[in-house]
From TrEMBL:
Keywords linked to the UniProt accession: Aminoacyl-tRNA synthetase, ATP-binding, Cytoplasm, Ligase, Magnesium, Metal-binding, Nucleotide-binding, Protein biosynthesis
The protein's assembly and partners: Tetramer of two alpha and two beta subunits.
Co-factor binding comment: Binds 2 magnesium ions per tetramer.
InterPro entries: aa-tRNA-synth_II, aa-tRNA-synth_II/BPL/LPL, Phe-tRNA-synth_IIc_asu, Phe-tRNA_ligase_II_N, Phe_tRNA_ligase_alpha1_bac, Phenylalanyl-tRNA_Synthase, tRNA-bd_arm
GO biological process assignments: phenylalanyl-tRNA aminoacylation
GO cellular component: cytoplasm
Family per similarity comment: Belongs to the class-II aminoacyl-tRNA synthetase family. Phe-tRNA synthetase alpha subunit type 1 subfamily.
Native organism: Paracidobacterium acidisoli
Compartment(s): Cytoplasm
Domain of life: Bacteria
Positions of the Aminoacyl-transfer RNA synthetases class-II family profile domain: 132-346
Protein name per UniProt: Phenylalanine--tRNA ligase alpha subunit
Length: 368
């Protein structure tokens, strides 16, 4: 087999020169392929070209492709891909046909290890989503869904965000174009939270209700390590006679212990949401340091995880237009909402939310 030429680190980028370089490389590979006569030699050849760390394709990609001036990248990329396709398909063909010969020549060795098929794994976000849902299912909650393209009425108005209310500013909204001629309540937007499904659920069925609603939500937020314009929430809603704030506290305390371990404590702070009164933010004692203070909890010992509260009677008022049984004098309820991405990032120590949407196998394989 001929020795590879050292991979050059600088290049003349003229088309003629590139054609010549890539032809030389292909010729070199073809020669190697003709000379490889045993499965071992074929494997050596494969490693030499396709090896992950030191393979020539990897070196070519990092030395030529990445170093190339921006305006040349496309052309070099195309040539590189053509070479790579050639090498990959030729090696596959050779392995197939020679493998056949080997099989013909020798009996199958059944002690050989089989072909390993790589198992896929649940995405950390979906895993967290399922864990959360399961805990509520075990408490008798059902699971609901709702549309991601929502009307202004369900996303805001029926949740007691009247038109022009400043609380709307807390959820920077992506709206669908061409809606101006419709009355505001019918205009379409990308839902900014899963809360509209509370209203849709109650409109569909009289009380009692115990439901969790996981789903995707959208906001016009600039992406950074902890923000993404698309993220996920789980909404919870419980409505019945005599539901009190202690039911809310007990339910969420149980939930946090089930998710993070029985030593985790919860604490509730006054907050504001238009659709709950009173409203609270819930913090848990840091499951990593036990509350002593560490980097994960920014040395405070506590981590804020969700918003919640008692369903505002005004919300029941909107629902009553379709389901009169939601009479705030007879029934009461609590609701809560949390970000699934945040919980997943915390549970798995993921520092950048964009990793969850990158599809990068180096990230995903860590969860396999
Ligand atoms: N929808 C709120 C948000 O996206 C979260 C939330 C807070 C949901 C309190 C609730 C709740 O159901 O009771 O910011």
């Amino acid at each position: 087999m001929s020795d590879p030429q050292p991979t050059p680190t600088s290049l003349d980028y003229s088309p003629e020169h590139l054609t010549q370089r890539f032809q030389t490389l292909q010729a070199e590979f073809d020669l190697g392929l003709r000379e490889a006569s045993t499965p071992e030699e074929l494997e050596d050849l494969r490693l030499k070209w396709e090896g992950r760390k030191q393979g020539r394709l990897t070196l070519l990609s990092s030395l030529w492709l990445k170093e190339a001036p921006a305006e040349k990248k496309k052309e070099i990329g195309q040539r590189f891909n053509a070479l790579k396709d050639h090498i990959v398909s030729e090696l596959q063909r050779a392995a197939g046909s020679r493998g056949q010969n080997v099989l013909d020549a020798e009996a199958i060795d059944i002690t050989q290890p089989g072909t390993r098929r790589r198992l896929g794994a649940e995405h950390p976000l979906i895993r967290t989503w399922n864990e959360i849902v399961k805990i509520f299912q075990a408490m008798g909650y059902s699971v609901g869904v709702g549309p991601e393209v929502e009307t202004d009425y369900y996303n805001f108005e029926s949740l007691n965000f009247p038109p022009g209310h400043p609380a709307r500013d807390t959820q920077d909204t992506l709206v669908i174009t061409g809606q101006e001629r419709k009355p505001l309540r019918d205009r379409l937007l990308m839902r900014t939270h899963t809360s509209p499904v509370q209203i849709r659920t109650m409109e569909q069925q009289p009380p009692p209700v115990r439901i969790v609603i996981p789903g995707k939500v959208h906001r016009n937020d600039a992406a950074d390590a902890t923000h993404s314009p698309i993220f996920h929430q789980v909404e919870g809603l419980c409505v019945d006679t005599n539901i009190t704030f202690s039911d809310l506290k007990g339910t969420l305390d149980h939930f946090m212990k089930a998710l993070f371990g029985s030593s985790v404590k919860t604490r509730f702070f006054p907050s504001f949401f238009p659709f709950t009164e009173p409203s609270a933010d819930v913090q848990i004692s840091c499951p990593f340091c036990g509350g002593k203070g560490c980097r994960k909890c920014k040395y405070s010992g506590w981590i804020e995880l969700l918003g919640c509260g008692m369903v505002d009677p005004a919300v029941f008022g909107f629902v009553q237009q379709k389901q009169p049984a939601y009479d705030p004098k007879k029934i009461s309820g609590f609701a809560f909402g949390m970000g699934i991405d945040r919980v997943a990032m915390m549970s798995y120590g993921i520092s950048d939310i964009s990793l969850m949407y990158s599809g990068d196998l180096r990230f995903l394989e860590q969860f396999a």
